[in-house]
Each structure stands twice: as C-alpha cells, then as structure tokens.
Write a structure and sequence with these properties.
By secondary structure, the protein is of the alpha+beta class. It is 35% helix and 21% strand. It contains 17 helices and 16 strands. The strands form three sheets. The chain has a seven-stranded antiparallel beta sheet, sandwiched between helices. Strands 5, 6, 7, 8 and 9 form a five-stranded antiparallel beta sheet that branches. A hairpin with a 4-residue loop joins β15 and β16. The radius of gyration is 22 Å and the shape is globular. Bound molecules: flavin-adenine dinucleotide, D-malate and zinc ion.
C-alpha cells in the first residue's frame, strides 16, 4: 500500500479534519518537550472513538507502517515522537471524564483526559487522584498509564499502575480489550492492565481507564529546609519517612538548581540564608492541621533560620514552585540531557555528589543539576551543554547508576533514549521474556517501533 493510499484510508476513518499531513500542523507532534528528540510523521491522526482507534491500527498494520501513540507529548525519553515515517496516533480527543462513583471512590477517564481535568472532577467530590506531577495540565491519563508515571506522591500512593483498576485498550491487530468496571479485587488470570501500564505504547493503545481515587486531604503543610550537604539532607529524608506519619512528598534540590529556577521562573528564595541542598517536605491530613507535626518532625535537624513552612495555599504554592519549576528552568537554559534514575536510598547522596564529576570527566564543559523525589530514591540528573546526539554524558551517568546498584529509569521510562541500557539493567533473561510478550501481542512490530527494544 502506498503512503497516499494509507493516508486516504486514515482520512476515511477519522475525517479530513483529524488527519494532519500538513508539516505545520504536524510540527508540535513531531518534537518532544525537551526538543532533544524529533522525527517526521507520515500523518498525525486524531481518532474520536475506540472503534476509530481499532480501524487506524488495522489500516497501519495492513500498510506495514509503524504507529506512535501520543498523549500530551510531555514524555521525556523520546517515546512519544516519530523516528521517521510513522503515523502518530493522538489520543487527545478521547478526553471524557465520567461521573465519580462516590461510594467506591473510582472514576472512568478517557486516555486523552489531562491529569488536571481528572483532578478537578475528583476533587469536586472529596476524592483526589493518587498521582500528581508538574505536567498535570498537559500530561494525559493514557500517557501516564503507558509510562507508569510517578510524580510527587509515590511514597504515599504509589505510581500510576497502582491507581489502575480497569482499562480499555486496542491491540496492534485492532482487537479491543475492555475491562472497565473497577474491582479492587480481581484475580482472574493475568493482570493485563498491569502489563500495559509501563509498556510505553509498545503493547497496546490505551483508550480508557478506570482509576482508584484517594481521599482528598483538605489540610496540607509544606516546608523547605536547607542543609549543609547532600548526606545530611538524605539522612533527614530517611528519618522523616519514619517519623512523619502525615508525609505526602519528599523532594530534594540543590542551590544551583534553585538559582536557575529563580532566574527563569521569577520565584523568590525561601529564606535569606542560602544552603547547598534543600528538602521540600509536604504533609497532609484529613481533619487535623499537619503543620504542627511537620514543624515538630523538623526540630531534630536544627535547621532554624534555614526553614520556611507554609500552611496557607499561596505559601505552599510558592514553596512548591521552587521544586516544580526545575524542569522548565532546565529547558530555558538549553536542551537538557535528562537522566531519570533511582538508587537505593543508602547510595542516594553518593549519586548526587558524584554525578557532576562523572559528567565532567566525559565533557569538561557540561553543567550538571540534580533534583528529584528523594523519598523514592529517584534522582533527576540533568546535564546542560552537550549536543543533543552526543551520548557521552548519558553513558557516564548511567554507568555510575549501575555501579551504585540502581535503575536506569525510575519513572520516565526507557523510550528511545535508553534502549541500549535495558539489557544492562534488567539482564538478558528478563528482556527476552519482555520481547516474547511483545512478539505475541504485536508480531509485526507496528506499535512504537524503536521504543524499549532497539530495532523492534
Ligand atoms: P506522551 O508524552 O504523549 O507519551 C509518553 C509515552 O506513552 C510514549 O511512549 C507514548 O507512545 C505512550 N503513550 C501515550 N499515550 C498512550 C496511550 N493512550 N496508549 C498507549 N501508549 C501511550 N513524569 C513522572 O513520572 N513524574 C513526574 O514528576 C513528571 N514530571 C514532569 C514535569 C514536567 C514539567 C514534564 C514536561 C514532564 C514530567 N514528567 C513526569 C514526564 C511526563 O509528564 C510523563 O511521562 C507523562 O506520563 C507523559 O504523559 P503524556 O500524556 O504527555 O504522554
Ligand atoms: C520532575 O520530577 O520534575 C519531573 O520528573 C520532570 C523532570 O525530570 O524534570
Ligand atoms: Zn520526577
């Protein structure tokens, strides 16, 4: 089948308006959020129903053309943009959010619904979504399930896979899998939803999800605390996980990162004294003000004038900006190499302290900024300076992570950025088992070719 025949078939399925072939209209779907990854799409198609998704997949399979599922295109590992010549399948029109089941604390959301849209619906009923992240206004529920997104509340509620009670998805041959009634207990064979979660668009296209909600905690408090070094901050974080029962988030950033945030996002420092490393701690509770408990839990660290605590929404927001706006500050400085990794908590300080010198050994002019979800052992090592296709600093950081017994991807996934590292991290046997599943579900390799497995 020629490209023109395929695009003709796609137009018949979704309508002229939703099959984009004009380069200007395709452009925002062809480059990722960091601007490090891009490729040309044959077309961008925007289906309006699960039936249309199935028909598109059948047409692409018949034509032997790869399909790149895409949600909000906020993914940071190159998995959401074409490598060259694929069809981008944008799920943004499948954005319906259902009525919250108040008794069960569950909601059905279309794959294209943004996290903030689902949060708004849930919060209006006293429930909330267990996962939260800075890209909430653009990241979609489908993309978040596909990447098993983490975010800032994993230590309390777990990542996206843990929120998934049911799903609807389409296999590469157009077969529709649907099990949407949410049942917290459902031991009927393989957990297919759990498998699709984290598969990064390589096994199936998610079209709808049934999500477990968590109680909305009306009372919150946030503190930003300064430390003299990384090891003291990590030791405090480890302690707080045990002593602060109301803990919601534990985030770490450095003074160098805060400097960039202040420059690019016009955010004020938390207190007059600058310290090399900071912890952001969030506590939440249903019926008690958690601020007293938070202040008491911080007491043993003697942080005194290097602490800012806020219970009011504006103050909390201001403190959160210091951490959350790191991503856009990195982008404002250049095209970052983003290495999202995790290590056992006992090795966390080593990684944060050694990453800059490992990077400098590979590229003396490169700048390294670390921040991350310390409560989960997750560091985001961001490197500024090297060209987008120069992988020497990526290699230096990932080698260090493996030496420290860590994982090369904590929450962003493998995408195309880290395909060469999957076997190093998981081992031949595990990757062979993954490939066997991939070949059974998608024998022709139509779905997201080049993601997870090189040359797939
Ligand atoms: P996309 O970027 O469109 O796609 C991501 C991957 O999922 C691709 O491989 C794509 O093919 C696949 N995919 C998308 N939709 C579907 C679907 N319906 N079916 C099958 N496959 C699909 N991530 C975190 O984990 N934690 C964070 O704290 C965090 N913070 C962020 C903050 C900012 C400012 C930004 C820009 C990103 C952040 N991210 C974070 C990364 C990103 O937001 C997540 O990976 C998110 O889950 C991606 O959702 P998306 O809809 O944008 O997916
Ligand atoms: C974050 O925690 O801020 C995100 O995962 C995005 C990033 O790594 O910049
Ligand atoms: Zn993160």
């Amino acid at each position: 089948m020629t490209d023109a025949t395929l695009t003709g078939r796609l137009r018949d399925i979704v309508g002229e308006r939703h099959c984009l072939t004009d380069p200007e209209l395709r452009a925002s779907h062809e480059t990722d959020w960091t601007r490090r990854f891009s490729g040309r799409a044959l077309a961008v198609v925007r289906p309006g129903s699960v039936g249309e998704v199935a028909a598109i997949l059948r047409a692409c399979a018949d034509a032997g053309v790869g399909v790149v599922p895409q949600g909000g295109n906020t993914g940071l590992v190159g998995g959401s943009v074409p490598r060259g010549g694929e069809v981008v399948l944008s799920l943004l029109r499948l954005s319906e959010v259902g009525v919250v089941d108040l008794e069960a604390g569950e909601v059905t959301a279309g794959a294209g619904a943004t996290l903030s849209a689902v949060q708004a619906v849930a919060r209006a009923t006293g429930w909330d979504v267990g996962v939260d992240l800075g890209a909430r206004d653009s990241a979609t529920i489908g993309g978040m399930v596909a990447t098993n997104a983490g975010g800032v509340h994993v230590l309390r509620h777990g990542p996206m896979r843990r929120q998934l009670l049911g799903f609807e998805a389409v296999l590469a041959d157009g077969t529709i899998l649907r099990r949407l009634p949410g049942m917290p207990k459902d031991n009927t064979g393989y957990d297919l939803g759990g498998l699709v979660a984290g598969s990064e668009g390589t096994l199936a296209v998610i079209t709808a999800t049934r999500l477990r909600l968590v109680p909305r905690l009306a009372h919150r408090a946030v503190a930003v605390v300064g430390f003299a070094d990384t090891a003291s901050a990590v030791a405090a974080a480890a302690d707080l996980r045990r002593t602060l029962g109301s803990i919601m988030a534990l985030e770490l950033f450095t003074d160098a990162g805060m400097e960039l945030v202040m420059r690019h996002a016009s955010v004020a420092p938390p207190f007059a004294d600058r310290r090399p490393v900071y912890l952001l701690v969030e506590a939440g509770s249903e019926d008690l003000e958690p601020i007293d408990g938070l202040v008491a839990a911080l007491e043993p660290f003697g942080v005194g004038d290097a602490a800012a605590v806020a219970g009011d929404p504006a103050g909390r927001h201001r403190l959160w900006q210091l951490r959350e706006r790191h991503t856009e500050a990195m982008n404002a400085e250049g095209v970052p190499h983003k290495l999202d990794v995790s290590v056992p908590l006992a090795r966390y300080a080593e990684l944060v302290d050694q990453a800059p010198s490992a990077v400098r050994a590979a590229d003396p002019a490169a700048r390294t900024i670390c921040y991350g979800h310390v409560g989960d052992g997750n560091v985001h090592v961001n490197v500024l300076g090297p060209a987008a296709d120069d992988e020497s600093v990526d290699h230096a950081v990932l080698e260090l992570v493996l030496e420290l017994g860590g994982s090369v991807s904590a929450e962003h996934g493998i995408g195309t950025a880290k395909v060469d590292w999957l076997v190093r991290d998981r081992g031949e046997a595990a990757v062979a088992a993954m490939l066997a599943i991939k070949r059974a579900w998608d024998p022709a390799g139509t779905l997201n070719p080049g993601v997870l497995f090189p040359g797939s």
